[in-house]
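Trying the structure run again after the queue cleared.
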Amino acid sequence: MIRDHFLRLFLAGLLMLTVQASSAQVNVESRIDSMEILIGEQVQMTVDVTMKRGQKLAFPTFKPSQQITEGVEVLDETQADTSVLDNDMLKVSKRYTLTSFDEKLYYLPPFKVKVDGREYASRNLALKVLTVPVDTLHPNQFFPAKDVQNNPFQWSEWSPLFWLSVLMLLLCLAVVYLRIRLRDNKPIIASVRIVKRVLPHQRAMQQIEKIKAEQLQTSENQKEYYTQLTDTLRKYIEERFGFNAMEMTSTEIIGRLQETGDQKMIDELRELFTTADLVKFAKYSTLINENDVNLVNAIEFINTTKQENQPTEERIEPTLTEAAKRSMRSRTVLKWVLVAMAVLVVSLLAYVVYQSYLLLF
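Done. Tokens:
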């Protein structure tokens, strides 16, 4: 019996020593940023709790505008911030935002927290709330609140957005242009040439004038004369009527022309081709006046069948070889540049819209 009594006393004493040691390890401190504020201003009160690692801590919670004491409201509270100290100790801090709307010196009661279910309190604090001094002797110096006014337009604020918009538009046009050129397998910079076009009858008459200048119709080399004259007519017929007269016989040419020309003109042209064939292949000799008649018939045929009011300029666009097309399709670097430009356009658009919103609203 005596031994059990001493054992109970020993355990009770050990428990009291443990509780006292635990209490000695918990420390609660509170501080306030400023001891004086004006009515409606805010002040920060910080509560620091030092305790052993592993202990459970509970801060009191306040609803918005709840009073910590009569006349002092708690507007907000932050999350607890924990820092590690030496000897396996922790420091937990929490801040409360306070305000007041009555002029008075307030007594802030001790701030109480719970550690492992046991309550601990901080020291007392004080807060003095002051009013704004008002000159009641000169009421004429007080003015009502002014109406909301629109901000004046300032080019210095909008000019960066304007030039960024211009840059964005140019980049957008460049992206569209490059996309079309890549899609159609065309060169990025197209070199289009405008050349003067000589009409078929003009080219034929120039050649006939050359024959006349060389006086081949009066020379002894009649084969050369009729060769040049018929070649000139064949080339003209090929360009004018659209069939390959250079590779056809005289009979085949006359047969094709009978579908489009009058009979008298065809008969004169047939006589010219027949004489030319006899001179070139049968060594037929003609008279001088016969050569002149054939030359006149050739000129008459050209003047009768020529087409007026035809375009005298021709637009020539460069054509690409298959190798060049394959090279264009493999331009991976240019495609990545195109993607980067598109991303830049979207980014500039978002930036301009956002900055415009800030300036307007």
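Residues 155-183 form the longest helix (29 residues). Worth checking whether this holds up in the mutant runs.
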